[in-house]
Amino acid sequence: MADAPPVEVRALTKRYGSTVAVDGLSFAITAGRITGFLGPNGAGKTSTLRALLGLVRPTSGEALVEGQPYARLRDPLGTVGAVLESESFHPARSGRNHLRVLATAAGVQAARVDEVLEQVELTGAARRRVGGYSLGMRQRLSVAGALLGWPRLLVLDEPANGLDPEGIRWLREFLRSFAAGGGTVLISSHVLAEVAQLADEVVIIHRGRLVTQEPLAALTARAGGGTVVRSPDEERLADELRRAQIEVSAAEGQLLVAAPAERVGEIAAAAGIVLHELRPQGASLEEVFLELTGGENR
Amino acid sequence: MRLLRAELLKLVTTRLLLWLGLLLLALEVLVISLHVSQDSVSSLAEPRNQRDVIGIAAVAALVALIVGVVSSAGEYGHGTISHTFLVAPVRERVVVAKVLAGALAGVALAAFAGVVAWVLAALLLSARSVPVHLGSADVMRPLFGTLLAAAVAGGLGVGFGFLVRRQTAAIVVVFVWLLVVEPLLAIANVNQYAPAHAVASVVVAGTPSSELLSFWPGLLLALAYAVGFTVLGAVAVKQTDVA
After folding, report:
1. pTM for this one?
2. ipTM for the complex?
3. How confident is the model over B146-193, as pLDDT tens digits?
4. What is the least distance, in Å, from the CA of A84 to any CA of chain B?
5. Pick from B199, B238, B194, B197: which is nearest to B96 by CA?
6. Which residues of A touch B95 (CB under 8 A)?
7. Cβ–Cβ pairs < 8 A, chains A and B
């Protein structure tokens, strides 16, 4: 199934007793891109990803990797690399031995273990017990494990949780280079800002249901992009802007313009209109995110 | 096969076997030296008694049981089971690999315990100038029986650990069962059919005993327990979400 999307979730529902964690969720992601999987805590992200990875059984519906349930993948580690939320390791086992166990089970050559350790910059600590690792080191070890089988797809569940800024930067750069090499990434987070600098597309869920799936650029446009402008020649400016197919609304002696400040300034200058104020406006990405996911709580 | 090798690697990359091995060694040194130093020379000279001296090696079967329980239930405790199932999503294969690894660990522990018991007994007996009969097949019978019994116990422990999936709870249940429940079964006179007695009948390997089944029925029953717990464990593991 070479044409199947890397990840496809179809009408997935997962109930734990009377709690509905995922509620008829459907979406698919595109190969070669970074998709942010967003939603507040408890939205059902982890349940969805665990269903995708065959760790929890869907109540109904399915979650497919390259068109197949995870358990049917011929080479799971060579298809998907997974970094789960708050990964746990045996504290007495060294990082290197942890990877050796995975490599042995997956039939991956032992030399690959040292390779991925190098890749996540953990070689120096590889022979130490994981019990003594910092959170950042554990996260790198998780990433190393995910890379063992040369996967085409990386699935990461809240990988930034508990990481220091340097760790987050490292992870971001790492994922960028993975995607640049043709890999597909699905990364979950409850904080939009964490994936905003990374993702091409976002899938936003809330209470187990899909809220929206759109390119990050579209979400950005929805959020920012707006400009507040004041001008003594307000009416003429509004006309000029509307002629440029830009939405304008007037309020309290100022215009709200659905275009970036640069564009508004250029149009005003071209028409010789004096501006008294030109200020980028609009909700931050985070505010749009909160509105999308918190709307029904109000 | 890959999974079996991975499971064996797991067993040797923590200190569990090392510590339990040392515990076994300490126990054998204590029990055998007490036995040989307290008993009279004439009594020790009897082959039957020398068989009892090295019989302590059978504790290896109990240790194998614990190793088995820890190797399965412990993965749930440490949360490493998710790594395991990500590499091998067909869970019953993991269960089978672990049962085999548990059995092999049991054999290794029993071999270690047997060699220690034999060497120690030989040294201490000759130090007291007791004629040593440790070479006879009849005397060595419990050592060979322990190899088999520990293999079965290791596999049984893995199955039971998968069924319970909580390490501490599983170990507590094992000890309550061994120390309380199974002795109580003697009242109803059915204890010879209980798991530990079945395993013990494999250990004594045909040495006549009033409380135990003879070797073959005992071995078959012990294997049936191991297979039964493995199947129950596999069913439970397949139906349980890994959170």
Report:
1. 0.87
2. 0.92
3. 999 999 999 999 999 999 999 999 999 999 999 999 999 988 888 899
4. 9
5. B238
6. none
7. 77
